[in-house]
Amino acid sequence: MTNQTSAATLVYDIHDSRYLNITGRCTLRCRFCPKNNGSKQVHQYQLALDHQPTADEIIPLLGDVHQYAEYVFCGYGEPTLNLATLLTVATEIKQRGGRVRVNTDGLGNLFHRRNILPELSQCVDALSVSLNAQNEQLYLQHCMPKLKGSWQAVNDFIRLAPQYIADVQVSAIDGLEGVDIAACRAIVDAAGCGFKHRHLGLVG
Q1: Which of 83, 91, 104, 194 could, after both became Cys, cross-link 123 (CB 3.0–4.6 A)?
Q2: Which of 185, 172, 177, 168 shows the shortest CA–CA distance to 132?
């Protein structure tokens, strides 16, 4: 199912999950992101947005929550940048008995200048956080963050997140120059999170 209002795909399905595309804005400019290499497509879905969708736009597209293993806030933007929509929609999904996961770059606290994890914990079951490097030099090289202090902020977020949300997975991408997957895994293990080993070029 897709919604083509304003030529925007607001929801899209992969396997048994429904994905929610709530922003095109991001705190990173990752060199490896298809968005930064001329494509905003995932599978058959075009994810370009011309505005920040509201909860009123997303909620009618949720469908039957019992038909999906989970709802995933994930597009080619950082979902926590449209926090009001995320929280309202996620709360609605939980009230209907659904499961919610947020794919994030872990910079929501830095962007909002406060700890947003208490708010997320009220309506989010799982977090998938992108780490993508074992040190600041490689993080800056590959992820090109827009905000100062991003490397420290994502590490702080990873360490803090399990205190609020039980299911936290942190990923790194195999195939990025200089990235040591074992070293990334060690950071994640030390933070008490699960590790997800991703591979360059595989999206969705």
Answers
A1: 91
A2: 172
